[in-house]
Structures are given as C-alpha cells and as structure tokens.
Amino acid sequence: MERCAWANQSETEKKYHDELWGKPLYDSKALFKMLILESQQAGLSWITILNKWEAFEDAYDHFDPDKIIHYDDAKINELMNNTGIIRNRMKIDATIHNAKMYFNVEKKYGSFSDFIWSFVDYKPIINHYQSLKEVPATTPISDKLSKALKKEGFKFLGPTTVYAFMQAVGMVNDHMDNCFCK
C-alpha cells in the first residue's frame, strides 16, 4: 500500500495521512479547529502539531470558538504555562481573536464552512502530482483566501498556512497519484 512519501516518517503521520489529511471537511467548527492548528504550525514542522494534538484539544477546550472568545488573562497565563502546546503569546492571542472573527464570518456568510468552501466552488480541487517537489507552497486560490481571511480580521494566516489548511481539510486533494488515498 503506497502513501504520500511525507507520511512515512512516523506512525503518527501515517495515521493522520490515512484518516484525515485531504478528506473533505465541511463542519464549520471542525474547519475552525484545523485553521487554528495550521496557524499554530507556522514556523514549525507539522509533526510538532501532531504530537501535541491531544494537549491542544484539552488546552483550547476542543477548539470550541464559543469558549475561546471568553478566554481571559488567567486562561492566557494557563496556556502560556502549558508545556504540552505551543506557548507563543502572539499565536495564543491570534487564536482568541480568530474565534471572534469566526462568529463575524458566520453571521455575514451564513456559515464559516460556506465562506471557506466558496473559494473552491464548494468542491475539492483534485491535483495530480507524481512527487512532493511538484506541490506548490501557495496557489492563487490560497492567496485569495488568505487575503479574504485577513480582510475579515483573521490573523496568522498567510498564503502558505492557508494552502496547508486547504490541503488538510480536503479543499485540494494533493495526495500523490500513486497514493492509496487518491
């Protein structure tokens, strides 16, 4: 059984690749969670996030934006002292801020999912790559979505982070053509 080469480094990566990565995700809160995890990854390797996934879930109340918008200084201090997560104050502040922006988008567009998926006409883009070297870091669509998110007030979501998010949630299918998940 062949899978994308990047996923063969550890059992954690294999499981993520096989069960989650690239599978279309339409639930608004699940999309918000993935957006936050991708923003936490900026400047780090994805395996760092995968290894801290459960700690993130616990620390951030399962990424429930209804709870995150109420985080206060005490909760921020708790997060800053939590060795199980990324303890970057700017990323923590951005997560809280982005939860507030999530609700603005929900109100303005009907759902966060509708807003996100509108950038790919509500269906995954299926790419055909033979090697990881062919996969771009950004695309015109990720550039456009990043700009739109920034316009809506979101932080820590540049085009590279947004493209990784698009791959993770199945907006684009970048599994290699020889991958069993294609």
Keywords:
globular
Characterise this structure.
31% of the residues are buried. The radius of gyration is 16 Å and the shape is globular. Helix 2 packs across helix 3 (46-59) and helix 2 runs antiparallel to helix 6 (89-109). A two-stranded parallel ribbon has the order 1-2. The model has no long low-confidence stretch (mean pLDDT 97). The chain is mainly α and 182 residues long. The chain has helices at residues 11-19, 28-41, 46-59, 65-68, 73-80, 89-109, 112-117, 140-151, 159-168, and strands spanning 125-126, 172-173. It has one domain (5-173): Hypothetical protein, domain 2 (Endonuclease III, domain 1, Orthogonal Bundle), CATH 1.10.340. One of its GO terms (biological process) is base-excision repair.
Could you give the topology of this structure?
Blueprint (H helix, E strand, L loop, with lengths): L10 H9 L8 H14 L4 H14 L5 H4 L4 H8 L8 H21 L2 H6 L7 E2 L13 H12 L7 H10 L3 E2 L9
Parallel strand pairs: 1-2
Helix pairs in contact: 2-3, 2-6, 2-9, 8-9
InterPro entries: Adenine_glyco, DNA-3mA_glycosylase, DNA_glycosylase
EC number: 3.2.2.20
Protein name: DNA-3-methyladenine glycosylase 1
